[in-house]
Design brief:
- The protein is of the alpha/beta class.
- The protein has 19 helices and 16 strands.
- A hairpin with a 2-residue loop joins strand 1 and strand 2.
């Protein structure tokens, strides 16, 4: 069989099931090349389901399908051969027409930029206008121009004119007519506007009740099929030579869509529709000029341009915030570092060292609060960057545009994930470096303790690990919920909850804490400098906890007379078995604890990204 003999579209026993419901069942059709096929049927008949299977956005549950002799799928070769325009005209509302043309050029091997621009210019659609400012008809024309600029061999249109006014509908169909007449193109178009389809299509597929009811050339179908109207009777009682395609009944009448092999002899059954007219002007004449596809220009260019155009506003906002934070911390940090070094010089000269913490700040408590607030940076990036990244595409349907360009779904997802995580790591690292440098003098004097909650979270490698995890969490939530607001809410709740649980219940136990027995009522300052004190309890000889104080009755008789002399009383209590147990993590374990916790969050981020991949690559669009 030569390439030209291979049908443009062929299905055999094709079916798609959602749970126990069959959206499409036992669909078997064969569409020759070069035809413009009308896909018709009532709502819920399975038209959109069939088209999504044909373009590789949905996987069949049964049967098989082929387009140009190959099964639909996410390969660059297949994607290059098809053009697709979904019913909701999925375009990026924030981008201009020119942005869309550039995106198409970046995502596809072959791209007819000049032809697309000429079509839009001829229709009076300005390239510098945002899609959100276009009319419905103009949006449909932009979508059609992008689909045709790929130079596809099969064009799939899902209700492209459903929401258009009559004039816009006429212009769209005229544009489609020109495209088919000028090229070696096969088209399948679904619509419920039968009058328009009859004017432009030469092949028909009728779906009803999720099954194929008839298929063939429209002229042949019109000659051999009739709507028959007669008294109510069973469809099986119809005379021989009439094949019932569809039957509907009222209390008194039966209405049949029937395929006829000869005249209707039953006098009680009338031809409700009449004969088809004469020759129907088709979409194209008998002769069509062949359209040569350009040579393969190499691998599809990356989706970096698309990612940048979609997320540049978030990048600008984050960059501006980081720049402002950098300036503020540099100005105050240089002053604080100068004060600290001046203190060290004075201490070395006079041999008299006071409390350095009083010299490091001069009324700039708001700055300290701002530095502590950087703990929220990972959460903000996860909620406002990670969560909307894929959720917005899935919610607005623009993934249908992206996934039917010349880059596979896996390639599109990989680029989005790579850039999101790289940006998260870079921003988290930059914040951590700034804050760690700014808090250098504070860490040197040990106030506040660097291992303590909040202080631990905003220094070292933790901000980068938290940010990567938060963005990965947002991406995973977006792929699962497919809505921006739910994804943002889940990201906020899950991130905040997990951070709290790990800080409170897991971090203290990463490494075995050190426990020391000290004289009773020893304070946290008895632990080595910079230590993170986990617990401090004063216990009696019987193990009873006296941390809040010891009553007169519980005090040993020998120690009662020393009540006003704390040092001697504590010594006496110690001799009677009273002691303080202090448990702490020493300051020297800072990097070890950071490494363990960062590893946990990076591992969780990796698991979330794997989940996102599984959902995106296996779930129907």
């Amino acid at each position: 069989m030569s390439a030209q003999d291979v049908p443009a579209i062929r299905t055999a026993g094709l079916g798609k099931r959602y749970g126990s419901l069959w959206a499409l069942r036992d669909c078997s059709v064969s569409v020759p090349r070069g035809r413009v096929t009308a896909l018709v049927g009532p709502n819920g008949a399975g038209k959109t389901t069939l088209l999504k299977i044909l373009v590789g956005l949905s996987a069949p549950s049964a049967g098989e399908a082929s387009v140009l002799g190959r099964p639909p799928g996410q390969t660059t070769e297949f994607l290059a051969s098809i053009g697709y325009l979904a019913q909701d005209l999925p375009l990026y509302s924030r981008l201009s027409v020119a942005d869309h043309l550039e995106i198409g050029a970046n995502l596809n091997r072959a791209w007819d930029a000049a032809g697309a621009r000429a079509r839009l210019a001829g229709l009076g659609i300005p390239e510098d206008r945002r899609v959100s400012a276009l009319s419905g008809g103009q949006r449909a024309q932009v979508g059609l121009s992008m689909a045709l600029a790929k130079r596809p061999r099969v064009l799939v249109l899902d209700e492209p004119v459903a929401a258009l006014d009559p004039l816009a509908r006429r212009e769209f169909l005229a544009s489609l007519t020109e495209a088919v007449a000028d090229g070696d193109l096969s088209v399948i178009m679904s619509s419920h506007l039968l009058h328009d389809l009859q004017r432009v299509c030469d092949h028909i597929i009728l779906l009803a009740a999720s099954r194929t009811q008839l298929t063939g050339d429209i002229d042949h179908v019109l000659r051999t099929h009739r709507w028959l109207l007669g008294p109510r009777r069973k469809a099986t009682d119809i005379e021989p030579g009439i094949e019932v395609i569809k039957a509907t009944q009222t209390a008194n009448q039966t209405r049949l869509l029937a395929r006829l092999s000869g005249p209707v002899l039953d006098s009680q059954v009338g031809d409700h529709r009449g004969r088809a007219g004469g020759h129907r002007p088709g979409l194209h004449g008998a002769r069509r000029r062949p359209h040569r596809r350009s040579a393969d220009h190499g691998k599809a260019r990356p989706v970096n341009a698309l990612i940048w155009r979609l997320h540049r506003n978030q990048a600008y906002t984050a960059g501006a915030a980081l720049a402002a934070l950098t300036c503020l911390l540099l100005l105050t940090g240089i002053t604080m570092a100068h004060d600290y070094h001046a203190f060290l010089a004075s201490c070395g000269t006079t041999r008299s060292c006071g409390d350095a913490t009083q010299l490091l700040f001069r009324g700039d408590g708001a700055i300290t609060t701002l530095v502590d607030a950087t703990m929220a940076v990972p959460l903000l990036l996860g909620v406002f960057w990670g969560a909307p990244m894929l959720a917005r595409e899935l919610e607005t349907g623009t993934h249908n545009l992206a996934w039917t360009q010349g880059v596979t779904r896996r390639g599109w997802l990989s680029r989005n994930v790579l850039w999101a995580l790289a940006a998260a790591a870079a921003f988290g690292t930059a914040t951590a470096v700034l804050v760690s440098w700014w808090r250098g003098p504070q860490n040197a004097v040990g106030v506040p303790v660097r291992l303590a909650t909040f202080t631990f979270d905003i220094q070292g490698i933790m901000p980068a690990a938290y940010t990567v995890f938060a963005v990965a969490l947002g991406i995973a939530a977006g792929t699962i919920f497919k809505r921006v607001l739910p994804a943002m809410a889940v990201t906020f709740t899950a991130f905040a909850g997990l951070r709290f649980l790990i800080a409170e219940y897991a971090r203290p136990h990463y490494l075995t804490a050190i426990t020391k027995s000290l004289p009773p009522f020893s304070g946290n300052q008895a632990a080595p400098a910079g230590s993170w004190v986990l617990s401090n309890a004063t216990l009696g000889p019987n193990g009873r906890n006296y941390t809040t104080g010891i009553s007169y009755q519980d005090t040993p008789a020998a120690c009662r007379s020393l009540g006003q002399q704390a040092a001697r009383q504590n010594s006496c209590l110690s001799s009677h078995g009273f002691h303080t147990l202090i448990t702490y993590q020493p300051a020297s374990r800072f990097w070890a604890l950071q490494g363990i916790e960062a590893g946990i969050f990076i591992a969780l981020a990796a698991a979330l990204i794997i989940l996102a991949y599984r959902v995106v690559l296996t779930r129907d669009a």
